[in-house]
Amino acid sequence: MKLKPEQLGAQLQRQLSSVYIVSGDEPLQISECCDAIRLEARQQGFTERHTYHIDNSFDWSELLETANSLSLFAEKQILELRMPNGKPGDKGRKALQEYLQNPSPDNLLLIITDRIDAATQKAKWFQQLEKTGVFIQVWPVEHRQLPGWVAHRFKMAGYEASKDAVTLLAERIEGNLLAAAQEIEKLKLLANGNIIDVDTVREVVSDNARFDVFQLADTALQGDVRNTVRILGGLRSEGIEPPIVLWALAREIRLLCHLSRLKSRGISTELAIDQAARTHGFSPFMLKKRRGLLEKGMSRQSERELRQMLEHAGIIDQGIKGLTPVNEWDELLTLSMTLAGAPVI
C-alpha cells in the first residue's frame, strides 16, 4: 500500500501494519512519519526497539535472529532498518524475503531510506514489502506549495494565521521545513490568543536563529576561521538543530559551485550572479551586494573542492537522518572550517 505522509495518521488509526517503509529526502517529514509509527506501536505494546544501520558489512542474519528470538514472555519489538539508498544488496534482499515468508505479529519492521528510485520499486523484494505493509514516499514541499503547508501546520496546531503572515513566513524559511517548524513553535508562544498576524511573524523572524546561520555562512565565506568556529559553537549551545546549520552551509556551497562553473566557462561575474540567482532562488540584487564575499569564497576553493564539500554535506545529511554513524557537530565544524579556508587534518 502506498500512502502520502498526510494519510499516515488515518491509516494508523485504522490498523497498525507489520511493515512500514518511509522513503524520501525531506528530514522533517521523514522524522515525523517515523515518530508517528513508533508512537502508535508503543501504544500497542511494541516496547522494545532494535535499530540497525545497513552498510556493506552488515550481517543480515542478525536481523533474522532478533526477529525469531521472541519467547512467550518477551515484549513486542520494532525492528528499525536505516538503509541509505534503499539498496540492501543480494544478502539483504534474500533476508527480507525470508523475513516476509513468516513474519511474527510481535514484530514491526520499519525501514527508513533515502528516496527509492523507480527501478528499485519494481524489484521483487520491494514489491513483496509494499504488498505486505505500507510504503510512504516523502517528497519535498515545492515553493508554490509552501504557503499551504504553513497554513495547514498552523491549523493543525489550533491557530489561525492571516494570509500575509503565512506569505511572509513562507518567504523567510525558503523551503526549509525544519526551520519552519521551529518558527511556528515560537509564534505559538507569542501569539495573541490563537491568531497569528503579520506583525507577530515579522517580530519573530527578524530576530531568529536563521540570521545566525546566515552569519555563520558569511563569516566562513569571509575566511574568518576563528569567528566561524565561535559562531558554530554558539549555534550549538543555543540549541539550533544541525539540519538548519547544514542547510545554510550547503546552500552557500552549492551557490559557489555553480558560480565557479559559470566563471570557468568565461562568463562574467555579473552575468554569472544573475544566472545563479535565478537557478537558486536568490534575489540578483541581494546576491550582488554579497559579491565580495562570494568572490573571496571562490578564490580559496576550486570547483572540484566545492563538489567535495557538497559530498561531505551529503554524508552529514545521512548522519542527521540516522543513516550513517557520524558526529554531525564534528562534521559541521570540519565543513565550516573548510569553507573558511582552514587546513583541516
From TrEMBL:
This is DNA polymerase III subunit delta. Signal peptide: none annotated. Residues 214-343 form the DNA polymerase III subunit delta C-terminal domain. GO terms for molecular function: DNA-directed DNA polymerase activity. The gene is holA. Residues 20-136 form the DNA polymerase III delta N-terminal domain. Pfam families: DNA_pol3_delt_C (PF14840), DNA_pol3_delta (PF06144). It is an enzyme of class 2 (transferase). It catalyses: DNA(n) + a 2'-deoxyribonucleoside 5'-triphosphate = DNA(n+1) + diphosphate. It comes from the Bacteria. Belongs to the DNA polymerase HolA subunit family. Gene3D superfamilies: 1.10.8.60, 1.20.272.10, P-loop containing nucleotide triphosphate hydrolases. Keywords: DNA replication, DNA-directed DNA polymerase, Nucleotidyltransferase, Transferase. The keyword Calcium does not apply. Its EC number is 2.7.7.7. SUPFAM superfamilies: P-loop containing nucleoside triphosphate hydrolases, post-AAA+ oligomerization domain-like.
